[in-house]
């Protein structure tokens, strides 16, 4: 009996490192996400969570390693063009059009007819989350999705704990490098 090949992960980070301002923020990250899966990034302030998301969104490129979507490197221009059409981005800058109704903002769900400027912080976040569902883009990159929300469960999540950052002159990476030399 022929064994079935396991499905390719939808997203695969293969030994990915990332520099910002000549500082190494992420180093040798290996992680995969399959359809229906979630990757939850936790870590202290400045540890690189947003940097990680920005790289997945294609705003910056890995300094080493590859990000593969369906097995293709997203930094290749032909691939990136298709990949970016899959992305749904949610960040603290909520991009809610305040003069439009909530319904206009979501564009699909039958919800409040209030102007969006009347919403509380948590309601704005819920509007953003509803918009994720309304737009047919399967890869969701969510920066601080639970800020301002009341209690929320996250299921089927793989936790990736990023190392804490150290003051600029001494990062964890610097310390590891020093340990290598010693
Ligand atoms: N535009 C930038 N240019 C250069 N370095 C940056 C830039 N933005 C952030 N950094 C640095 O990159 C590192 C990681 O920042 P990042 O925003 O990814 O952290 P984070 O884990 O999302 O933090 P927080 O929990 O505070 O939101 C920090 O040391 C930060 O100073």
TrEMBL record:
GO terms for biological process: cytochrome complex assembly. It comes from the Eukaryota. Residues 11-181 form the ABC transporter domain. SUPFAM superfamilies: P-loop containing nucleoside triphosphate hydrolases. InterPro entries: AAA+_ATPase, ABC_transporter-like_ATP-bd, ABC_transptr_haem_export_CcmA, P-loop_NTPase. This is ABC transporter I family member 1. Keywords: ATP-binding, Cytochrome c-type biogenesis, Membrane, Nucleotide-binding, Translocase, Transport. Coiled coil: none annotated. GO terms for molecular function: ATP binding; ATP hydrolysis activity; transmembrane transporter activity. It comes from Hibiscus syriacus. It holds the Pfam family ABC_tran.
